[in-house]
Specification:
Oligomer: single chain
Radius of gyration: 14 Å
Largest sheet: none
Amino acid sequence: MNSFTTHLSMLIQLALTDNDFAGPEKGMIYMIGKANGIKETEIDGLVKRHLNKEPVKIEFKALSEEERFEYLYNIVQLMKIDNEVFLSEIRFCEKMAERLGYQKAVIREVSSKIYSDPAITSDRHLLADTAQKFRIN
């Protein structure tokens, strides 16, 4: 699994935490995948694997700082895209943040600054600097 397929797998897992993989979450995942050269059929396959609860290993060890932040940004944006944030989604994001090398509290901090509408841009440099303060050394 390449790093971007891993990225999509993480987003799909988050989208499935509320047992409702549809609408804005699904659209965002497909949009991100297609924008990064992933074919729709490959995205369909990943979704099917997750829906069938097949094990999908997600590795973060080889990611650069920028890639780690991009993952973090995308999971928070996806959590908020449907304007409903469930505790299960928050917990998933905190778990992924820790696996990415951040403290759990980074989710609360950057979530307050990331908009649910992907069309609204956030100050990514400020967010990256904020997230960096929560890196676990």
